Amino acid sequence: MKRLITILPRLIPAAAVIALLAFVPLNTATADAVSSLRGPLALEKEKSPPPVYKLKLDQEKFDRNFKTQPPLIPHKVAKYKINLKANRCVKCHGKANYKEEEAPMIGVSHYQDKNGKEGKKINMGRYFCTQCHVAQADAKPLVANTFKGTK
Ligand code: HEC
Ligand code: HEC
């Protein structure tokens, strides 16, 4: 009991600060200033679908914004299937066929397991190519940002 009494005076200022903080408005965002990507539509209204942008296909490669960025895809991908039985991307980019297809070879890193050992087949952690590699459209960013790549 004696201990509690000696630390109590020290606890009281801390409690007071916490209590005060609860009344300080966090950021100044009010309900009016918040808008969703869907826009200010009533719940039962449907938003008209966004335009389908043309893919950017006028260059052979996109510059990378940072060293370890998965390179962006400079060609169409919609018809290339990736499923349990087949992976169309590997048919062009895989070790076995890339020369014939004149496609850039999949990075060696994609054939390594978690210990860095290179296998014959693509590592399953890299099987779903479009999880990391994406095509590009000439569209405005949905949300403004100040991102600048490093070189
Ligand atoms: C018919 C062959 C073919 C198929 C299928 C294909 N690609 Fe490509 N890909 C190419 C060629 C050729 C290039 C080189 C650029 C060009 O000519 O368009 C390329 C370029 C790329 C690049 C850019 C590489 C770099 O270093 O900048 C990426 C990433 C890529 N492809 C990913 C994919 C993914 C993911 C798929 C499957 C969804 C896929 N490709 C399917 C032939 C193919
Ligand atoms: C987990 C993320 C991830 C997945 C999944 C993935 N990649 Fe990559 N890919 C990368 C990164 C990061 C790089 C750049 C560094 C490197 O080469 O490892 C890259 C590089 C590449 C390159 C360029 C290699 C070079 O030397 O310039 C090609 C081509 C490529 N990937 C194709 C593919 C294909 C095809 C698939 C599917 C079979 C795939 N990737 C799956 C992340 C990924």
Explain how this protein is built.
This protein has 151 residues and is mostly helical. It has a domain of 88 residues: Flavocytochrome C3, Chain A (Flavocytochrome C3, Chain A, domain 2, Orthogonal Bundle). The chain is built from three helices and no strands. The longest helix is centred in the first third of the chain and has 20 residues. The relative contact order is 0.13. The mean pLDDT is 84. One heme C binds next to helix 2. The site of one heme C (HEC) has 20 residues, from helix 2.
Give a short synopsis of this structure:
20% of the residues lie in helices and 0% in strands. It has helices spanning 2-21, 88-93, 98-101. It binds heme C (2 copies).
List keywords for this structure.
151 residues, Flavocytochrome C3, Chain A, domain 2, 3 helices, binds heme C
